[in-house]
Amino acid sequence: MNRISRNISIVLRAERLIAQRHLAVLRRQTGLMAAAGIAAGVGLIMLNVSAYLALSQTMSPPSAALIVALVNMALAILLVSLANKSNVEQETAPVTEVRDMALEDIEAEMRAFAGEAKATADAVKKMASDPFGAIAPGVAGTVAKAVIKNLKS
Question: pTM for the full model?
Fold first, then answer.
């Protein structure tokens, strides 16, 4: 029974660690997506400004604004790709393996316990249906030992 409680404790700890890692990855992805959104917003604004300036002024100021906008867009793409690379399964694989092993051990203990309970129930049924037959092997062995001991002396 001690192994079962230990394994249940391991399963609960493993589940807690898995949940913590899921939240950490979600938090990181949310931050990176927010930064990508801001960069994309700035890039869009700069693209709009550069298009306006390209139509209304000479080539130099709009070209500068266009370069800044393209850099912002590249930054947004980089942040999105970093956010998509975060993988919970890779980080939680060892903890998941420990949890699964503990669950398998609990299942094996429960099967063994069920087998013992069934054997005990069968023995009680056998004693109820034939009380002398269940007691006779033990009594016969004791009587045989006593007879052999008396014959020797």
Answer: 0.40
